[in-house]
Amino acid sequence: xxxxxxxxxxxxxxxxxxxxxxxxxxxxxxxxxxxxxxxxxxxxxxxxxxxxxxxxxxxxxxxxxxxxxxxxxxxxxxxxxxxxxxxxxxxxxxxxxxxxxxxxxxxxxxxxxxxxxxxxxxxxxxxxxxxxxxxxxxxxxxxxxxxxxxxxxxxxxxxxxxxxxxxxxxxxxxxxxxxxxxxxxxxxxxxxxxxxxxxxxxxxxxxxxxxxxxxxxxxxxxxxxxxxxxxxxxxx
Length: 236
Known about the structure:
Shape: globular
Largest sheet: 6 strands, mixed
Number of strands: 10
Distance between the termini: 35 Å
Strand content: 25-35%
Number of helices: 8
CATH architecture of the largest domain: 3-Layer(aba) Sandwich
Order of helices and strands: EEEHEEHEHHHEHEEEHH
Helix content: 25-40%
Number of domains: 2
CATH topology of the largest domain: Rossmann fold
CATH class of the largest domain: Alpha Beta
CATH superfamily of the largest domain: P-loop containing nucleotide triphosphate hydrolases
């Protein structure tokens, strides 16, 4: 279980997150909200890259601050901003990332991740020569090479073409059958097949519900309309 308890974060006098609480179990959970709602900040805190002003995050009972190495061993994180090295070959990058994680049976793990993300045909290519869609697949392959129980994806379909988006959504659905997946997105089509929805507004968690109940907010079960209704309610 992933536990997020009373997380708050300020940058100077600006409150970005305000007492955010939730727990995650196996399945796919979407984190949504308007621009500036605090999604990426929360993702960075949960993944251990940013410290909150108060509150705690536990990854399978391991505190992200006080038991950092143990907690991080469960996490695969794909940030919104690419962390790829363009001059490296895809295979070399995947091996390097797996080595950092002390992955056993390293080559087998890398090839399995590459196959899962359908990038075996570009393993010898330089990353800088790949399309944005393939680069995103490489990042995800690097994150899953050590089979993390908790996968965090920040805007994974941003800038991808329609078919690439469908493939990433299908991957999330399959990976979430045995693991915990948290995906932050502003593309509402991404959440159609998730299990649960968390919605942030001005740093506050305003909705925590399963996807079917989220759709019911709209009479037509339209995701965009449901989102607009919730945004309007907050501003009233």
